[in-house]
Write a structure and sequence with these properties.
This protein is an all-alpha fold and about 140 residues long. About 75% of the residues lie in helices and about 0% in strands. The longest helix has 30 residues.
Length: about 140
């Protein structure tokens, strides 16, 4: 865990900042289609497009601002957003053929699920995360 603790919290910060930016740009393109940034997926209904980019904004914002402000609920709020992203990914893949659909789409979706599970486990168990956010080690049943 020590090796992960050296780089993963800040790596998650950078990835979360990228998600925040991607979500903001996606919402801007959603509201102003003339921007033509190429972020929209025409096979998704408008409501799903909106939820997709809103979830990206919220996921990124929760970790970025939680990390910077040392908000103690950041790990659990981030894990909740990973569950939201996983749910959207499931709908997009199964119902609308994201990632090319079929077996390839499902394999990519399952890989995304594994990533969320690994990151969630890290956020719950990491001593560096507990220290960063001022979480009592006993609070998680450790």
């Amino acid at each position: 865990m020590d090796r992960l603790d050296r780089f993963l919290p800040r790596t998650l910060l950078a990835i979360s900042a990228a998600l925040l930016c991607w979500g903001i740009l996606g919402l801007l393109e959603y509201v102003f289609p003339a921007l033509g940034l190429g972020l929209q997926n025409e096979s998704f209904p408008a409501g799903l497009q909106f939820l997709h980019f809103l979830a990206l904004v919220l996921t990124g914002a929760i970790y970025v601002f939680g990390y910077l402000r040392r908000w103690p609920h950041t790990p659990h709020a981030t894990i909740t957003m990973y569950a939201v992203l996983a749910t959207l990914c499931f709908v997009e893949t199964i119902d609308f053929g994201a990632f090319g659909g079929g077996a390839t789409g499902v394999a990519i979706m399952l890989g995304e699920f594994v990533l969320y599970i690994v990151l969630s486990t890290y956020l719950i168990r990491s001593p560096a995360i507990r220290q960063r956010f001022g979480i009592n080690p006993r609070a998680n049943g450790s």
